[in-house]
Specification:
2 copies of one chain form a homodimer.
Chain A lengths: L2 E5 L4 H12 L4 E5 L10 H4 L9 E4 L2 E4 L1 H11 L12 H34 L6 H22 L14 H10 L7 H8 L3 H13 L3 H5 L1 H26 L1
Parallel strand pairs in A: 1-2
Antiparallel strand pairs in A: 1-3, 3-4
Helix pairs in contact in A: 1-3, 1-6, 4-5, 4-6, 6-8
Chain lengths: ~240, ~240
Amino acid sequence: MGLKVYADRMSQPSRAVVIFCKINGIDFEEIRIDIFKKQQFSPEYKAINPMSLVPAITDGRFKLFESHAILIYICCAFPGVASHWYPGDLAKRAKIHSVLDWHHSNLRRGSVGLVFNSILAPVNGFPSNPRAAKEGEKILLKSLSKLETFWLKDGRFLVGSSQPSIADLSLVCEIMQLEFLSEKDRNRILSPYKKVLQWIDDTKTATAPHFDEVHGILFKAQKVIRERMKAESGKSELKSKL
Amino acid sequence: MGLKVYADRMSQPSRAVVIFCKINGIDFEEIRIDIFKKQQFSPEYKAINPMSLVPAITDGRFKLFESHAILIYICCAFPGVASHWYPGDLAKRAKIHSVLDWHHSNLRRGSVGLVFNSILAPVNGFPSNPRAAKEGEKILLKSLSKLETFWLKDGRFLVGSSQPSIADLSLVCEIMQLEFLSEKDRNRILSPYKKVLQWIDDTKTATAPHFDEVHGILFKAQKVIRERMKAESGKSELKSKL
C-alpha cells in the first residue's frame, strides 16, 4: 500500500517524477503504463487517471495525477526530501509555482507541439502535421529565450537558486525530448542558448546517476528513430535521383 | 508598499485575483493595465512581468506573475483567508494543484483558442483564425465534459468540496469568457453541462456581490460586441439579398 508511480519513461513528466523519487531515496514501486501500447486507456488505469495520461500516483487509497502536483505532494508527504526541491519560504515557493505555471503554456506546449507533430506522430503511424510542428517550434524558441534571459538570469538554477528545485527537474526533462530531433535540428534550436545548455548540464550533474539511467530508454529510442529517419531521407534522395 | 494588483478586468485570470482579494477583505491597490492599449508592453510593466501578461502583483519589493501562483501566495501570505480557498490538508491541497495544472492545457487553452480567435481578435483589428477557433472549441467541449463527469462528480465545488477553492474561482472566471460569444453559441456550448451550469451559479453566489461587480466591464463589452456582430451579420444578409 506504499507509493506507486504509474509512468512511461518515454514521457517527460513521467521521467521527472521517477528521477525525483530515486534521487530522494523514496521507497516506491514503478508501474509501467506503455503509452504506445495504449495502456493509458485501460479501464484499470482510467480508474487512477481518467484523463488517460502519465504519470499518476497512488499512495495508499489516495490517487493523484498532473506531474507538478505529484512532485509537490511528494515533497510535502515524504520526510527527508531536501528543502531546496520545494522551499518552505513563501516567496521562493511562489516563484517556483510561477515558473511551473508558465511551463504549461510555453516550454511544454512548444516542445510537445514540435516533437510530437514532426517525429513521434509519424514514427507511431499517425500523420505528421507540419503546421502544428512549426507553431510548436515558434513557441519553443520563444520559451528558450525567456529561460535564457529571465528565468536563469539570477543563478545556476531557475528563479535565482543555487540548488535545483522540482521546476528545474521538470523543465529539463521536457527539453530532453528534443533528443528525438535530428542532431542538426536539436543543435540549431538549442545552441544559441548558452545558459540553458549549462543549466541542463548542471541539472543532470545534480541528479546523477539517476538522470541518465531514467533517460536510457529515450536514448535507445533516439538511436532507432534517427537511423530510421536517415534511411527514409536516403530513400527520398535516391528516388529524386532516379 | 502594500499589495498592488496589476490587472485588466477584461482578462479572466485578472478578474479571479481581484475578486479573490475583495472577497477576503485584503487591503490592495488595483492598477489597471489596459491590454487593448498595449500597456502590458510598457517598460515599467515589463519590469514587473517580462512576459507582458496580466495579472501580476507586487507586495513590497516582491514581484509575482501567473494567476494560480498569485492566488496561492495571497492565501499563504495574508492572514484571515478562510482555509477552504487553499486547504492546509495535504491531500486536499494536492487535488487543488492537480485541477489547476489541468486547467492550463485544457479549459483555458480551449476557451482562449475559441474566444480570442473567433471574437476578440477580429473585434480588435487582428485577423480571425477560424481553424484555431475550431480547435479551441474542440478542446473546450472536451474540458467541459471532464468538468461535468469527473471534477464535479463528488460535490458542489471542484474535487469534492462543499465550499469553493481558488480553483473554482479561477476556472469559473475562465468560463465567463464565453459571454463574449453570441447567446446562441454560448448556450449551445454550455447547456448540455447541467452540473457545470449549477457550479457557475454556486461560485457566483459564494463570491457575491464582488463576482458581478468585477465582471461589469465584461458585460458592457459583451453588449457592444453582440450589437456589432448583429449589425455585421445584418449587413451580410442585406448584401446576399441584393
